[in-house]
Amino acid sequence: MTVLVTGGLGYIGSHTCVALMEAGHRVVILDNLCNTSAAVAGGIQEITGTEPATYTGDVADRDMLRKIFSEQEISAVVHFAALKSAPGSVEEPLRYYRNNLAGSLTLIEEMDRAGVRRMVFSSSACVYGISGSEPIPEDAPLTPENPYGWTKAMTEQILRDLCRADGRWSAVLLRYFNPVGAHKSGLIGEVPGDRPGNLMPRIVRVAAGLDEKITVTGTDYPTPDGTGVRDYIHVVDLAEGHTAALDYACAHTGAEVFNLGRGRGVSVLELIDGFEKATGVPVPRVNMPRRPGDLAMYFADPAKAKRVLGWEARRSVEEMCADSWRFAKRWLSQ
């Protein structure tokens, strides 16, 4: 089928485009390029051998959406397009609510107008907030800690309400944890920005000599090595989860939610040490006190995705690290 992927040139979106195309689907991409580059489409083409149809524009642009739905025979939508920085959402809450909610509502309305009623929605584990138990199941309370998380939880609720009101709709809500890694070709991946908040891009910056050391915040947690434990999942595993979710959306109606994670945690030190082992590149580190609000452990219960979708994460921490570094070296050499 032909699948519209909003935010399809972003980090997770681009890998999902590859996975969808390798599964035999035709992909149409809409991206406003606010957090990526048009050059990513070339990487997708080089990997798959097929040039994806690409539109540059915003998901909140009703005229652009109508143009796409009139020019392309879209059967389903995978929706990534959103502002995604949790700290940024705290600093600019109105911008995040306007962009993420208005964009999603406009997209859903135009899908309905075009008779396209299958969506896979890119949600996030941040909808759980501070969980009281690990691993976290899908029925855990939703208590987001920041406006970004609330935009995801609210969009989920919109889709659940819509599916209850209109039995023609199908929405699969995917909550994922900590995507890392890159495509094994090194052609697409996560660009390490100047001030990344996530651990793997910070490791990559130190390995590349862009930063002197990596800061380990908190070494006295009640975990095996004292550092925080998180659920890191290879971005290609995550992308393959979206293809499984699309298959489910095409075979069912109603709204369904799934965690996508490995279901086992990796500590900060394990990821840093794993990177050094996989790449042979030293990553100097310095220990600092805990940050307020950080949790000792946070990881998924992915049993439902395995049982219902037939999907599970397969790639190792070593692969995550080696693939991240392969892409980073290529990107830094350009």
What do the pLDDT scores average to?
A: 95
Radius of gyration: 19 Å
Low-confidence stretches: none
Can you tell me the CATH superfamily of the domain at 2-179 and 234-261? NAD(P)-binding Rossmann-like Domain
Helix and strand composition category: alpha/beta
CATH architecture of the domain at 2-179 and 234-261: 3-Layer(aba) Sandwich
Strand portion, in percent? 15-25%
CATH topology of the domain at 2-179 and 234-261: Rossmann fold
What is the helix tally?
Answer: 11
Strand order of the largest sheet: 3-2-1-4-5-6-11
CATH class bucket of the domain at 2-179 and 234-261: Alpha Beta
The total beta strand count reads 14
Major sheet, described briefly? 7 strands, parallel
Shape: globular
Distance between the termini: 35 Å
The string of secondary-structure elements, in order, is EHEHEHEHHEHEEHEEEHEEHEEHH
Helix content: 40-55%
Topology:
Layout: E1 2-6, H1 11-22, E2 26-31, H2 40-48, E3 53-56, H3 62-71, E4 76-79, H4 86-91, H5 93-114, E5 118-122, H6 147-165, E6 170-176, E7 178-180, H7 199-207, E8 214-217, E9 229-230, E10 232-234, H8 235-251, E11 254-260, E12 266-267, H9 268-279, E13 285-288, E14 297-298, H10 303-309, H11 317-332
Parallel strand pairs: 1-2, 1-4, 2-3, 4-5, 5-6, 6-11, 7-10, 8-13, 9-14
Antiparallel strand pairs: 9-12
